[in-house]
Specification:
It comes from Streptomyces aureus. This is SnoaL-like domain-containing protein. This protein is of the alpha/beta class and 132 residues long. The protein has one domain: Nuclear Transport Factor 2, Chain: A, CATH 3.10.450.50. The protein has two helices and seven strands; from the N terminus they run E-H-E-E-H-E-E-E-E. It has a seven-stranded mixed sheet, covered by helices on one side. The longest helix is centred in the first third of the chain and has 10 residues.
């Protein structure tokens, strides 16, 4: 995960859990994020490629495993534009890059439980809007 905005580091608590999450996702071992989720984990990742179609990876651990299996590994990286923490909730605005080229914008919201594990994750991704 790479920071692409000077303003990104200005928040008091820049979503440390989600920052680490995307760093792991961009690594050679993205499956390690499975160690970070709670027993009652649920997610929805709405993934749009800009052609009018979207895929919603929704559910529990099995849905996350399915998402990881279909993902292109090593081709995309996540770049933080801004992030913050509000209590147990983290909000993260970023871009997905393919190589050196921005491909899409995304927003992620996650709730971290008292054990430090992610219990809820909502991500929306679109190639149709940029936050420059």
């Amino acid at each position: 995960m790479t920071e692409t905005s000077a303003a990104a580091g200005t928040t008091a608590a820049p979503a440390p859990f989600l920052t680490a999450w995307f760093e792991i996702l961009d690594s050679d071992e993205p499956h390690r994020i499975l160690d970070l989720i709670s027993d009652d984990f649920s997610l929805s990742i709405l993934f749009s490629t800009g052609d009018g179609n979207a895929t919603d990876f929704a559910g529990d651990r099995a849905a996350l495993v399915g998402y990881l299996q279909q993902r292109e590994r090593g081709t995309r990286t996540h770049h933080r534009l801004s992030a913050t923490t509000l209590g147990q909730d983290e909000l993260f605005l970023g871009e997905v890059w393919r190589g050196e080229v921005p491909e899409a914008s995304f927003v992620a919201a996650g709730r971290v439980n008292t054990d430090g594990r992610l219990e809820r994750l909502l991500i929306g991704r679109s190639s149709q809007i940029r936050f420059e």
